[in-house]
Amino acid sequence: MTNMPSEIKEAWEILAEINDLLGGLIQWAGDDAVDTINKLYGQWQNLCSETTSARSALFYDRCKEILDECDSYCNDIANRGQVFEEAAKDKLLLISSCCGKR
């Protein structure tokens, strides 16, 4: 790697940073995301198995509570995607400057 032109070294470093970002997403998806999805799934299953009447305030409140958790989780997913997208675009700008494109 010592004989490599500096532009190539710089491009490799940028690509490694993108890979690190992807690695972070993979780690999160494999750990936290799976746990959260399983928890939400379990909550819906429990609600279904425990419900004796869908015409109760308790049933409605519990549905709303779980849906609010789902909504919050969807926002987390969207935010993580947005952060990755913005970081990757920034890296693309750096790569374009390595390639002499502006």
Q: Roughly what percent helix?
A: over 70%
The largest β sheet comes out as:
none
Number of helices: 2
Order of helices and strands: HH
Cα-atom radius of gyration: 22 Å
Strand content: under 5%
Q: Shape from CA axes?
A: rod-shaped
Mean pLDDT: 89
Low-confidence stretches: none
Structural class: mainly alpha
| Alpha-carbon distance between the two ends | 26 Å
Work out the count of structural domains: 1
In total, how many beta strands? 0
Characterise the protein shown here.
The chain has 102 residues and is an all-alpha fold. The protein has two helices and no strands. It has helices at 6-50, 57-98.
Q: Which features characterize this protein?
A:
single chain, 102 residues, mainly alpha, rod-shaped
Short structural description:
With 102 residues, the protein is mostly helical. The protein contains 2 helices and no strands.
Q: What is the secondary structure topology, with strand pairs?
A:
Elements lengths: L5 H45 L6 H42 L4
Helix pairs in contact: 1-2
